[in-house]
What does this fold into?
Amino acid sequence: MPLPQLTIGDLKPRHPIIQGGMGIGVSLARLAGAVAKAGGIGIISCAQIGYQHPRFQRAPLKANLEAIATEYQKAKEIAGPEGIVGFNIMCAMNKYEKYVQRCVEVGADVIISGAGLPIHLPELVGAAKTKIAPIVSSAKAAKILLRTWAKRYQRTADFVVVEGPQAGGHLGFKYEDTAMKPEQMDEEFQHILKEVAVYEEQFQRKIPVIFAGGVFDRKDIDHYFQLGASGVQMASRFVVTEECDAPESYKKMYLNAQATDVEVIKSPVGMPGRALKNRFTERTKVEAHIPIAKCRSCLSYDHCDRKTIPYCITEMLLNAVTDQPEDGLVFAGGQVHRIKKMTTVPELMAELTEDN
Ligand SMILES: Cc1cc2nc3c(=O)[nH]c(=O)nc-3n(C[C@H](O)[C@H](O)[C@H](O)COP(=O)(O)O)c2cc1C
It folds into this structure.
């Protein structure tokens, strides 16, 4: 059976697959453009998006805002006229509103926003054509967010991304809930669908719900469609493609990962994060505070107390993508150990979407 059509307003990707945003520097123009060209939705991560920009060390915000335009343009060139490209912007980011406004200005097709609830996103996007989606991990979060958007802005989400505990990167769960069984998350997913249905009724429109976190193959995709999903968001599998923007050393960490190498770590953002065990994660177990070399004000003050954080998240994510993966934070999803070989985006998309 072919996979059902995903429709987000006037956006109709050939395949109902979103490549999840991966910061820092893992999903930039090259990966997002290739995914969009192959018929999925390509997502560029805004997290320190300008880290390779000559101005980044002196003026990180300026460099990041400039890079939003250049990465988007590049991704669209790769993607071609039909390609759908958007951005992932984490709520915890300092100057969040400036990032959103810039993405809207450059004409982003979609903005997906998590690591907190994007309460103000509708007012920042206004009447622009950019489609917006929150990332939620529970029915409670979905309810709070959608109710607030309906009351405050008389609008609803264009789609919703539900991220389960097997996802890579920051997780919207308490540390002890990150080991939740897949069946438990399937149940929560049903509750989220019910919450979303309330707003489908109120706004008389379909709100596609996308599942993310540990989706590995076509069997998984079919499973989430059976549960009522309209699409999936996948990230880890896209890391080990030639087009992924991360360096070879990063991709090698993925290829060498065993199941026992996947850990849930504490992030300075105040959320748990799923990552690969390495020299850095071992260091965090014995050092309460790894001194910060340079603060780039990446997180808002309520998310980062510079004096008490265990380590600087930007510094560690940057190490990971600048050929020091052993000494940096390498985020990865819970199924990473099943990835055995390097591939390309078209090959991966074909594997995931071909009729079975
Ligand atoms: C290396 C890496 C970096 C990530 N960075 C972000 C990010 O910047 N913002 C975000 O919302 N999610 C981030 N995520 C989560 C993904 O977008 C995605 O939802 C999740 O990893 C899906 O699970 P999977 O990797 O098992 O497919 C990241 C995931 C990985 C693996």
Q: What stands out?
A: The CA atoms of residues 142 and 255 lie 35 Å apart.
